[in-house]
Automatic annotation (TrEMBL):
Top-tier EC class: oxidoreductase
Name this polypeptide is given: Metapyrocatechase
PANTHER family from the UniProt entry: LYASE, PUTATIVE-RELATED-RELATED, SLL5075 PROTEIN
Record field: catalytic activity: catechol + O2 = (2Z,4E)-2-hydroxy-6-oxohexa-2,4-dienoate + H(+)
Gene3D superfamilies assigned to the protein according to its UniProt record, in alphabetical order: 2,3-Dihydroxybiphenyl 1,2-Dioxygenase, domain 1
InterPro entries registered for this protein in UniProt: Catechol_2-3_dOase, Fosfomycin_Res_Enzymes, Glyas_Bleomycin-R_OHBP_Dase, Glyas_Fos-R_dOase_dom, VOC_core, Xdiol_ring_cleave_dOase_1/2, XylE-like_N
Record-annotated VOC domain positions: 7-122, 150-269
GO molecular function terms noted in the UniProt entry: catechol 2,3-dioxygenase activity
PROSITE patterns in the record: EXTRADIOL_DIOXYGENAS, VOC
Cofactor(s) recorded in Swiss-Prot or TrEMBL: Fe(2+)
Metal-binding among keywords: yes
EC number: 1.13.11.2
Length: 307
């Protein structure tokens, strides 16, 4: 049952040097820089996104993800979900409007995997960058790099993915779109969606809490993914794997690293999900094919390089 959570809203990523990070997120991936605040944080967005920002970069001593936020329908939904989160057993922190530039009040909680999430209802609307909403052109002519269209999802590693599944499905209204199960039928990976997408958030079972695997950005075509591979080589960017296809979600993908060691993905395509769809299941003995459909074997770095 849907609870009023609409979509991923933003992710705050820790980087070791924000100016170096901008060469990655702005100049290479092609996000648009929208603002900076008095804490030194930088705000960016994909050009098709209507809200002011979807990525926040914060300079810190170690890389990783501070939190991921989801946008809800309105303030009434936000208040209802606050109560539902408390009833589930989460400690909820109130963060005032304006703490993030252009964003309304947020409520923050920690999932059983140790990751911090937040919900918000209001954010400044800036519209699709460079084209607007009235008689829009097909795309802005001055986009940079890979020309990413939007922040799409995060993949996170943590220990208690079962309780986190209960939190996201029972309290927040997400559906299980895809999963990987072990021989006993236990989920070791879960791909959760609150939309028609194959996933808006995904979790992999891992002994440590609060590990960040990647933030993912959407491109339009397979040709764009191949072009992203060219740009990765042109800029001597550290690559993880690809271009290739996933078995899970069937998206066409490439993975690479920012200068701080945080992994990024750009992808296109992928499956869709409606609420009446049964979850797609992969068995753990086919995990290589599930993750890298063409190679059919795991890249150890993909499983162990976390921030």
């Amino acid at each position: 049952m849907k609870k009023g959570v609409m979509r991923p809203g933003h992710v705050q990523i820790r980087v070791l040097d924000v100016e170096e990070a901008l060469k990655h997120y702005r100049d290479l991936i092609g996000l648009v820089e929208m603002d900076r605040d008095d804490q030194g944080r930088v705000y960016l967005k994909g050009w098709t996104e209507v809200d002011k920002f979807s990525v926040v970069l914060r300079e810190a001593d170690k890389p990783g993800m501070d939190f991921m936020g989801f946008k809800v329908l309105n303030e009434e939904v936000l208040e209802q979900l606050h109560g539902d989160l408390v009833a589930f057993g989460c400690e909820v922190e109130q963060i005032p409007a304006g703490e993030l530039s252009g964003c309304g009040r947020r409520i923050r909680f920690v999932a059983p995997t140790g990751h911090a999430f937040e919900l918000f209802a209001e954010k400044e609307r800036t519209g699709k960058w460079g084209v607007g909403n009235v008689n829009p052109e097909a795309w802005p002519m001055d986009l940079k790099g890979m020309r990413a269209q939007r922040f799409d999802h995060c993949l996170l590693y943590g220990d208690d993915i079962d309780a986190t599944y209960e939190l996201f499905t029972r309290v927040l209204g997400f559906d299980l779109a895809e999963q990987v199960v072990d021989p006993e039928g236990n989920r070791v990976a879960q791909f959760l969606t609150v939309s028609m997408k194959a996933h808006d958030i995904a979790f992999i079972k891992h002994p440590e809490k609060d590990k960040f695997h990647h933030a993912s950005f959407y491109l339009e075509t397979w040709e764009d993914v191949l072009r992203a591979g060219d740009l990765i080589s042109m800029t001597d960017t550290s690559i993880d794997i690809g271009p290739t296809r996933h078995g899970l979600t069937h998206g066409k993908t490439i993975y690479f690293f920012d200068p701080s060691g945080n992994r990024s993905e750009v992808f296109c395509g992928g499956d869709y999900h409606y609420p009446d769809h049964e979850p797609v299941t992969w068995t753990v003995d086919q995990l290589g094919k599930a993750i890298f459909y063409h190679d059919r074997q795991l890249n150890e770095r993909f499983l162990t390089a976390l921030t």
